[in-house]
């Protein structure tokens, strides 16, 4: 009974806020009475690992076989050692991925399995990449709701129980038609019209709530559309900007599913992965917020085509608009204001449109050359 009374007092303080003091004292109060978001058995705290800044973190990446996970694992393994970064997914990994470092099956909807992986591998950082993206999410709302929302709840509880540092990416898709679109600041109206966007706003808010309520070290970046050469996108609205390179090299022709003047924020994968590493390593006291926009460039299909045609004048682009993707794109930011990330933890992108196009073409040309040699 006294515990319940103390808890409700703590909860009341959390809701009302304490003038002149930050969230830290509340966090300490909550932890000192061992209040965790989900009922846990007593052995859970025995297995939890405290991460000292001088140690290497032990990282688990969920949804790691998508467009971004393998590249992130490579970057983190270079920094923390091969065996300190575990990739996981529900799909079978290709040989090259399986032999490049630890891989494990993990379905984020299976709470016990997740917990077992975190405990047995003494995980200290969790990068939560599993999700259904915007276009596939609209095609399967029930599954998107389950993976993106129920799965996130499992991740938050596991991370809070085991004192993990948790990274969850958000997206330009977390904004909607009533948000300011050019530029979109960190804090503004967020009323997305896709299940993907709704689930990502939910993730931002839940992560920040767990941070204030339970002291969870939650970190979140809103990624723009990510462009990569050696991995394929998983069904998003910005995928055209990757597909155009494949088709340009293979056939010299591309059919674009967005209108020529659809402007969206975009980023080369190396910038995205480096930003993720940098925000994960940033000292907590540099983070004035827990969810940041990050930006690099912003372009339309027409502008991307023109940049490509500087090197491939024969490239032909036609337009066959997909109404679902177009409606999504028309509700998203055109430009992202990432001044807080630049100010707080020194975010700076390396790739603008010309460097992006050059790097992508170099990759595909080299791949074609190698294929001819073999
Ligand atoms: N790629 C982008 O342009 C972009 C932009 C903004 C944000 N993001 C975010 O970054 C993260 C990674 O994006 P991505 O492009 O690699 O996504 P992706 O769609 O390519 O990969 C997602 C992975 O999640 C896995 N998955 C699905 N259900 C699962 C489950 N139940 N348990 C475990 N794994 C499951 C899939 O098998 C897939 O490999 C996502 O959260 C996405 O929202 C991506
Ligand atoms: C923008 C991002 O979240 C993803 N590439 C999508 O289009 O759905």
Present the secondary structure layout.
Layout: H1 2-16, H2 24-32, H3 44-47, E1 59-62, H4 69-80, E2 85-89, H5 95-98, E3 103-105, H6 111-120, E4 125-128, H7 134-139, H8 141-161, E5 165-167, E6 170-171, H9 195-214, E7 217-223, E8 225-227, H10 240-250, E9 253-256, E10 264-268, H11 269-281, E11 291-293, E12 297-299, H12 301-309, E13 316-319, H13 323-330, H14 339-345, H15 353-373
Parallel strand pairs: 1-2, 1-4, 2-3, 4-5, 5-7, 6-7, 7-11, 8-10, 9-13
Antiparallel strand pairs: 10-12
Helix pairs in contact: 2-9, 4-11, 6-8, 8-9
The protein binds nicotinamide-adenine-dinucleotide and threonine.
Give structural notes.
GO terms for molecular function: L-threonine 3-dehydrogenase activity. Catalyzes the NAD(+)-dependent oxidation of L-threonine to 2-amino-3-ketobutyrate, mediating L-threonine catabolism. It comes from Oryzias latipes (Japanese rice fish). This is L-threonine 3-dehydrogenase, mitochondrial. The protein is of the alpha/beta class and 374 residues long. It has a domain at 24-227 and 268-296 and 334-350: Rossmann fold, CATH 3.40.50. It has helices spanning 2-16, 24-32, 44-47, 69-80, 95-98, 111-120, 134-139, 141-161, 195-214, 240-250, 269-281, 301-309, 323-330, 339-345, 353-373, and strands spanning 59-62, 85-89, 103-105, 125-128, 165-167, 170-171, 217-223, 225-227, 253-256, 264-268, 291-293, 297-299, 316-319. The strands form 3 sheets. Strands 1, 2, 3, 4, 5, 6, 7 and 11 form an 8-stranded parallel sheet that branches. The protein has a 3-stranded mixed sheet with strand order 8-10-12. Strands 9-13 form a two-stranded parallel sheet. Helix 6 runs parallel beside helix 8 (141-161) and helix 8 packs parallel to helix 9 (195-214). The longest helix is centred in the middle third of the chain and has 21 residues, at 141-161.
């Amino acid at each position: 009974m006294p515990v319940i009374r103390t808890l409700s007092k703590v909860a009341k303080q959390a809701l009302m806020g304490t003038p002149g003091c930050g969230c830290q004292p509340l966090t300490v109060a909550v932890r000192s009475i061992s209040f965790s978001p989900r009922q846990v058995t007593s052995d859970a705290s025995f297995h939890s690992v405290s991460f000292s800044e001088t140690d290497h973190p032990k990282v688990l990446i969920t949804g790691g076989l998508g467009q971004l996970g393998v590249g992130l694992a490579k970057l983190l393994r270079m920094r923390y050692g091969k065996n300190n970064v575990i990739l996981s997914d529900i799909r079978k990994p290709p040989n090259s991925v399986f032999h490049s470092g630890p891989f494990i099956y993990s379905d984020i909807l299976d709470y016990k399995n997740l917990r077992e992986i975190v405990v047995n591998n003494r995980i200290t950082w969790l990068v939560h990449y599993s999700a259904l993206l915007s276009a596939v999410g609209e095609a399967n709302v029930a599954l998107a709701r389950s993976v993106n929302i129920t799965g996130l709840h499992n991740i938050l509880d596991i991370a809070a129980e085991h004192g993990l540092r948790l990274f969850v990416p958000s997206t330009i898709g977390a904004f909607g038609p009533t948000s300011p679109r050019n530029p979109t600041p960190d804090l503004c109206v967020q009323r997305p019209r896709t299940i993907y966007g709704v689930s990502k706003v939910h993730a931002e808010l839940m992560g920040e709530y767990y941070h204030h309520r339970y002291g969870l070290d939650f970190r979140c970046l809103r990624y723009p559309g990510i462009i990569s050469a050696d991995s394929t996108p998983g069904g998003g609205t910005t995928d055209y900007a990757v597909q155009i390179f494949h088709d340009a090299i293979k056939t010299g022709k591309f059919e674009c599913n967005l209108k020529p003047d659809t402007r969206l924020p975009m980023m080369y994968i190396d910038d995205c992965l480096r930003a993720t590493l940098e925000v994960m390593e940033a000292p907590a006291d540099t983070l004035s917020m827990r969810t940041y926009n990050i930006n690099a460039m912003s372009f339309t299909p027409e502008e991307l085509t023109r940049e490509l045609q500087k090197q491939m004048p024969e490239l032909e682009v036609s337009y066959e608009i997909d109404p679902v993707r177009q409606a999504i794109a028309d509700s998203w930011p055109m430009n992202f204001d990432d001044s807080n990330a630049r100010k707080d933890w020194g975010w700076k992108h390396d790739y603008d449109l010309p460097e992006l196009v050059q790097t992508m073409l170099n990759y595909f040309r080299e791949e074609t050359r190698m294929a001819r040699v073999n």
